[in-house]
UniProtKB/TrEMBL annotation:
Its main location: membrane. One of its GO terms (cellular component) is TAT protein transport complex. This is Sec-independent protein translocase protein TatA. GO terms for biological process: protein transport by the Tat complex. NCBIfam families: PRK00720.1 (NF001940), tatAE (TIGR01411). Belongs to the TatA/E family. The Tat system comprises two distinct complexes: a TatABC complex, containing multiple copies of TatA, TatB and TatC subunits, and a separate TatA complex, containing only TatA subunits. Substrates initially bind to the TatABC complex, which probably triggers association of the separate TatA complex to form the active translocon.
Amino acid sequence: MGGASIWHWIVVGLIVVLLFGRGKISDMMGDVAKGIKAFKKGMADDDTAKPVQPSEPVRTIDHQAGATGAQTNAATTDHKVG
């Protein structure tokens, strides 16, 4: 009762062919194959993507040697209202 014999699968296959027809099943398999092919092509395109080149050269910020932490703290504490 729980086992599926070869005759069970043959009957199920015949019912599927009768319901969907041979043409619809082959069309469906063709669509699946096209989808797999497009997926593989998309994955291959991602692997060969070129790295992005920056349009401008990288700039650095120079440190001002004259400004110290004590000078900047004194300048900001003058504006406190207390």
